[in-house]
Every structure is written in C-alpha cells, then in structure tokens.
Write a structure and sequence with these properties.
By secondary structure, the chain is α+β, with helices and mostly antiparallel strands. The chain has one domain. The chain is built from two helices and four strands.
Length: 100
C-alpha cells in the first residue's frame, strides 16, 4: 500500500511546523555491510516558515502488517543531512542508537 503524499506533507508540518510543498519523489536504496538496510521512496518538500531548513524529506514504513499501521518520518535538510539518502541514514542511525 502506497502512502498518500498529503499524509507525508502533514507529517512534515506537524513535526517541524511551517508549510511544506511537495517537490519530488525520489527512489532510495541504502545498503549496510552488503545488505539492503532500507529501500523505498522519499518525498522531498520545500519549507516555508521553518528557520532551521528550507527543505525536508519524508517517508513512511509499515510497522504492523496486520493493521497496516505506519510510522511517518520527517527529516530536515540541515547539518549532515543534504539528500534523501542522508535523511534515511540519519533516521536509521537514530532508531538503532547510533548503529546503522
């Protein structure tokens, strides 16, 4: 099941404030030690009213197959995060306590 881009926009706005405007969807595949760590589509949004960044990256993953419940990610284009792949890697590292 694909996620509605409006849900991703809402995730960006609710987590970071401001107004998010869809720019593009980018396929991303991240590998760690020769294995796929994450693969999917990251939506890129331009931001208005967010002093920390002018861009954000958002995607979601299914966390419960039975109910199709999803977790939504929204990562700002700031600091070391300069691309959709950087955003995914930052989220993976944060989830695994500093270990990708």
């Amino acid at each position: 099941m694909d996620v509605d881009p409006d849900q991703l926009r809402e995730a960006v706005e609710s987590q970071h404030g401001g107004r998010a405007v869809f720019v593009q969807a980018v396929p991303v595949r991240d590998e760690f030690e020769g294995k796929t760590a994450w693969e999917g589509v990251v939506h890129v949004f331009s931001l208005e009213g967010v002093p920390a960044a002018k861009r954000a990256y958002s995607w979601s993953t299914v966390i419960d197959e039975a109910t199709q419940r999803r977790r939504f990610y929204a990562v700002l284009h700031a600091g070391p995060v300069k691309s959709p792949l950087d955003a995914v890697r930052a989220a993976l590292v944060a989830e695994h306590g500093g270990k990708a």
